[in-house]
């Protein structure tokens, strides 16, 4: 069993249940991300054209492959809720752990808000096509998040089992559509020869496209949040994460191929639901219905996974007193971090109500990017402090330190890409995290019980 306990001293210790397997890890990782194949990635087309978006897709795919390998090693060894937050706590120190915890909560909460916006926009579009003029999208946004929060409140096994089913449907929809448009009929059913126009903004546009190229894969690292609730972290985390990454690479390539072959890049770069629009271009009612369902399921699966991951990170910070201990409680019946789940829901809804999809996506991307930068430093320190053979590892990623150095290089390039299009947002979120760090150092750190937060039975680090 894990060491998760209620935050209230003197009470019986309650544990998160170990009930998950590799398919649930896959469902969590792919479920969060697959919505990025249905929307969001296409904003990279506006930055670099269709070919620039494809280059960004593969370059960022390499970045996330490094993320998946690094996460699989460290998480299968530090098998506790909180994911990268818990890793930072054990390997680097409290201030880094606090910031990484905030990165996770912000990234997933913002992504959840973006998912809710997509659900509202999709239902609004359906209502308009059906002739309904007084449709209230915000009510459905709140209803969607409320239902998903209730599922998360009641138990992780049910939550991720549902996520597996709806994520599988959304992925199968992409495969069915690929074969449905007969991609071998170039110039008849698909028109890359007519629609691809090179790099309209040159290579600087390709660099700028890296920011939204992250949307193809953003959130796969969320598999780490299941580490405390899987039956075997050494097997389930690496298998679920790496299979999830393979799934996303396939889905991302097929998505780009279909959308860029049926939609002009000028429209594709600003479309809200590009895959659904692509299906509409085929003229097939069956494909349109399938992609409508796929888009809806992908957004719901992503929001569902985000609630799970954000609440685990917030719960872990409360359990270790980085946040008020009230958030570190486990439900006595459902064994879920129920207070953290409920607390974060109004925050997600408030951001969803802004209606600013690209801004919400940008804040989610930047928070995730800061977390990836930490990973490259974290794994290098992890290998130096506890070399191979010193502690048991569930998985050892190959070619170290090349993936870490490659990840750091690609993160730097993506920061520059973000600065080109969203410089003020980049600076504002950096200021936010600096102020939060000052608050933690001057106020919250005194409540942290340093000796209680190290739960791994590892030997003293090398050199200490």
UniProtKB/TrEMBL annotation:
It is found in: Membrane. One of its GO terms (biological process) is transmembrane transport. InterPro entries: AA-permease/SLC12A_dom (IPR004841), APC_superfamily (IPR050367). The chain crosses the membrane at residues 15-36, 48-70, 91-111, 135-153, 160-181, 201-218, 239-259, 290-315, 336-354, 360-380, 401-420, 426-442. The keyword Membrane applies. Pfam families: AA_permease. GO terms for cellular component: membrane. It is a multi-pass membrane protein. Residues 32-418 form the Amino acid permease/ SLC12A domain. The keyword Membrane applies. It comes from Methyloligella halotolerans. This is Putative amino acid permease YhdG. Keywords: Membrane, Transmembrane, Transmembrane helix. The lineage of its organism: Bacteria, Pseudomonadati, Pseudomonadota, Alphaproteobacteria, Hyphomicrobiales. It comes from the Bacteria.
């Amino acid at each position: 069993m894990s060491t998760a306990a209620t935050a209230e001293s003197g009470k019986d210790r309650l544990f998160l249940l170990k009930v998950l397997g590799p398919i649930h890890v896959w469902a969590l990782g792919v479920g969060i991300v697959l919505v990025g194949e249905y929307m969001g990635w296409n904003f990279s087309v506006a930055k670099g054209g269709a070919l620039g978006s494809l280059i960004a897709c593969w370059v960022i795919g390499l970045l996330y492959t490094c993320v998946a390998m690094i996460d699989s090693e460290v998480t299968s060894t530090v098998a506790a809720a909180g994911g990268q937050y818990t890793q930072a706590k054990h390997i680097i120190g409290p201030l880094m752990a606090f910031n990484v915890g905030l990165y996770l909560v912000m990234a997933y909460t913002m992504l959840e808000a973006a998912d809710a916006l997509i659900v509202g926009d999709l239902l609004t579009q359906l209502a308009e096509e059906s002739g309904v003029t007084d449709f209230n999208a915000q009510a459905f946004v709140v209803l969607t998040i409320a239902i998903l929060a209730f599922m998360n409140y009641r138990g992780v096994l049910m939550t991720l089992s549902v996520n597996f089913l709806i994520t599988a449907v959304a992925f199968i929809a992409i495969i069915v559509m690929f074969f449905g448009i007969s991609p071998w009929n170039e110039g008849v059913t698909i028109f890359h020869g007519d629609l691809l126009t090179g790099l309209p903004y040159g290579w600087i546009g390709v660099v700028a496209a890296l920011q939204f190229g992250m949307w193809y894969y953003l959130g796969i690292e969320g598999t780490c949040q299941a580490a405390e609730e899987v039956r075997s972290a050494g097997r389930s985390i690496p298998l679920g994460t790496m299979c999830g990454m393979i799934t996303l690479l396939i889905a991302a390539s097929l998505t780009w191929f279909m959308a860029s072959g049926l939609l002009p890049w000028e429209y594709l770069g600003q479309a809200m639901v590009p895959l659904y629009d692509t299906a509409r271009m085929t003229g097939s009612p069956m494909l349109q219905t399938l992609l409508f369902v796929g888009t809806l399921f992908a957004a719901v699966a992503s929001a569902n996974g985000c609630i799970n991951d954000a609440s685990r990170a917030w719960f872990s910070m409360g359990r270790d007193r980085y946040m008020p201990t009230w958030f570190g409680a486990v439900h006595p019946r459902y064994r879920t971090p129920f207070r953290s789940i409920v607390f974060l829901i109004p925050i997600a809804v408030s951001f969803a109500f802004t209606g600013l999809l690209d801004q919400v996506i940008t804040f989610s991307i930047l928070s995730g990017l800061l977390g990836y930068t930490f990973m490259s430093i974290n794994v290098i320190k992890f290998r130096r402090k506890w070399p191979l053979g010193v502690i048991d590892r569930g998985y050892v990623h190959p070619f170290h330190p090349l993936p870490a150095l490659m990840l750091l290089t690609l993160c730097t390039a993506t920061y520059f890409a973000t600065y080109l299009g969203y410089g003020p947002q980049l600076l504002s979120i950096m200021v936010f995290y600096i102020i939060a760090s000052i608050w933690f150092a001057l106020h919250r750190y005194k409540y942290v019980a340093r000796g209680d937060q190290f739960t791994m039975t590892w030997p003293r680090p090398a050199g200490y």
